[in-house]
Design goal:
Largest sheet: 2 strands, antiparallel
Structural class: mainly alpha
Strand content: under 5%
Order of helices and strands: HHHHHHHEEHHHH
Helix content: over 70%
Shape: globular
């Protein structure tokens, strides 16, 4: 990691922290437009961090050290939250935990993206991950169950995105999970490595993810985030993601097998 990249990452983190602190304090009554703009600003800064890390020059030693440091920050934030009693220390713990989570998820996604050896594999990989996300969030209800039964673990794996006016007029904070940042970094890193369109894809993903979060707030139902993120990232490059007939058949078989495994696991756990 060169000095320029480090400055950009620190700047993006600082902007995220400032926006997260300032947006809820705005004396604005939450509405659909206000919620969407709030989510756009917070999602853009979080994804900007993922994009900067994902498109950095790859260096195994640097990336592994960075992942270890981010994991330590993430764990330190969680531990501080467990022992802190005052509100101020609790907020510091939350910010520390979220900064660690955002960076660790981004570096992890960048590293795992190396398993995608060809650009055409982006589409099957994204389809598989979207299926898993939709299954856990919407179909099986596993994610809401984890939120209810293991609240501390769920909190440690998510980032809160409060809308404008949340501190003046109480409104529930919307959530972005570890998997959302991981997936965004993974796909952006692969798009960058294969020379695909990144800039337009990035902003389209931010717009789509912000829409998904706004719908969660307005409809008061959980929605999987990966379909929104994947649609934004892959749509501008869809003309380059061409699969042969055999590849489509293999993808269909793989997705079908994954669906069977998920259903079987759900049935076994709910006996």
């Amino acid at each position: 990691m060169d000095a320029k990249s480090a400055v950009h990452i620190l700047g993006s983190l600082s902007l995220y922290v400032i926006l997260k602190a300032a947006i809820p304090m705005l004396p604005i009554k939450p509405s659909a437009a206000v919620i969407y703009i709030s989510m756009f600003l917070l999602t853009a800064t979080a994804f900007m961090l993922a994009r900067m890390i994902a498109t950095m020059r790859r260096c195994w030693r640097t990336d592994i050290i960075a992942m270890a440091m981010c994991l330590l920050v993430w764990m330190a934030g969680f531990w501080l939250g467990e022992i802190s009693a005052g509100k101020r220390y609790g907020e510091l713990a939350t910010i520390t935990q979220e900064v660690g989570l955002l960076c660790f998820a981004s570096f992890s996604g960048k590293t795992v993206s190396l398993v995608i050896r060809e650009g055409n594999l982006l589409l099957p990989a994204a389809m598989a991950m979207m299926l898993v996300d939709v299954w856990f969030v919407n179909l099986s209800g596993a994610t809401p169950q984890v939120a209810n039964r293991a609240g501390k673990l769920f909190k440690a794996m998510t980032v809160k995105l409060p809308p404008a006016g949340a501190k003046k007029i109480p409104a529930p904070a919307l959530l972005m999970g570890f998997g959302d940042i991981f997936f965004a970094a993974l796909i952006i890193a692969a798009l960058h490595r294969f020379g695909f369109e990144v800039r337009v894809s990035f902003w389209l993903a931010v717009l789509a993810a912000s829409l998904g979060l706004t719908l969660v707030s307005l409809l008061d139902i959980p929605l999987a985030g990966l379909p929104f993120i994947a649609g934004g990232l892959l749509l501008p490059n869809i003309h380059r993601l061409k699969l042969t007939r055999e590849e489509w058949i293999a993808t269909g078989i793989g997705i079908g097998m994954l669906a069977v495994i998920l259903i079987a696991a759900w049935l076994a756990l709910n006996r």
